[in-house]
Amino acid sequence: MSSLKVTNIKGPSNVITVSSGSVLNLAEAEGLKVPQWRNSTRPGSPVTGMIGYNIQTGLLEFWNGSAWSTGGTPTETLWYNEGNDVRAYVNNWNYTGTYNMTTLANFGNSYVHEWGGSARTYELTLSGIPSHTEVRYRCFIHMIDSWDNEYNEIRMWNNAQQELTYLSWRKIWNEDYLRNTTSNYGATMYFYGDQPYSYEPWNGNNQRTNGYVAIDTNWQPHSNTNIRIFHRTDLDQPASDEAYYISHSQLYIR
Q1: Nearest to 173, CA basis, from 146, 207, 201
Q2: One domain, residues 100 and 192
Q3: pLDDT tens, residue by residue, 44-79
Q4: Closest CA to 164 of 234, 218, 119
Q5: What is the value of pTM for the model shown?
Q6: How many domains does the chain contain in total?
Q7: CA-to-CA distance for 149 and 147, rounded, in angstroms?
Q8: CA distances from 93 to 46, 52, 65, 125, 188 (A)
Q9: Same domain, residue pair 155 and 40
Q10: Domain that holds residue 156
Q11: pLDDT digits over 4-52, tens only?
Q12: Which of the chain's ends, N or C, has fewer CB atoms near its CB within 10 Å?
């Protein structure tokens, strides 16, 4: 078993003071286990210096007096968040059309960036970003009905305003998975199939393979006050046959 070795413990009342020469000695290689939690089960009234292991993020974190922080990494901030209603944010995009999905997968009633019926790149441009050293972009891309192996990708400006491709994939209408997936710079994507939508061109006959891709660029070096994110799709038929929607765009900074 592990052992705690100290040279002196003393103190009045409920206060114990350990002399500066005392040491923590783990005599065997079993390690020291700290409390574990998820984001939703973190201590409700933490005190400064409280430490634990977040099994949801896979990181050690501590309460710095105002927020949960991971080691020496700066605390992240959700700086831009469209939520489930994009209408107030369309001026940040090159295509400004929206569509109301009363059922958008498991997100409920939502307004999304609508499908325009031809191959295109949806561009999100953000400026005035506060001081930071890294950015992380997330969104959901919804893919419905007659997809015929069309190509899709996510690109984003780096700090020098060069476009880098972080994710790409293809989708076929009768398959509940993505094809030809590529991920760069630590970015990730995950497809959630068998999702319900209030508008489906094929009237629900293809729901098993309808769904959305959860996009996450992960943390990328960036300190510029501006950024552009590109969502390309080669989908080429109108919404009466197939559709592509973007929702829940978020930009984190730290």
Answers
A1: 146
A2: yes
A3: 999 998 899 888 777 888 888 878 887 665 678 999
A4: 218
A5: 0.72
A6: 3
A7: 6
A8: 40, 40, 38, 6, 23
A9: no
A10: 77-253
A11: 555 555 555 555 555 555 455 555 556 677 889 888 899 999 999 889 9
A12: N
**Whether 56 and 117 share a structural domain:** no
Asked if residue 26 and residue 88 are part of one domain, the reply reads no
Q: 26 and 45 in one domain?
A: no
- State whether 174 and 200 are in the same domain: yes
Look at residues 73, 103, 134 and tell me which one is the last residue of a structural domain: 73
User: The domain spanning residue 104 has which CATH number?
Assistant: 2.60.120.260
Residue type, position 79, single letter:
W
Mean predicted confidence (pLDDT) in 161-177: 95
Beta bridge partners of 164: 156
Residues 190, 210, single domain; the answer is yes
Are 133 and 74 a contacting pair, CB within 8 Å?
yes
199 φψ region: left (φ > 0), alpha (ψ -120 to 50), beta (else) = beta
For residues 125 and 38, membership in a common domain is answered with no
Q: Tell me the pLDDT tens digit for each residue of 191-206.
A: 999 999 998 888 767 7
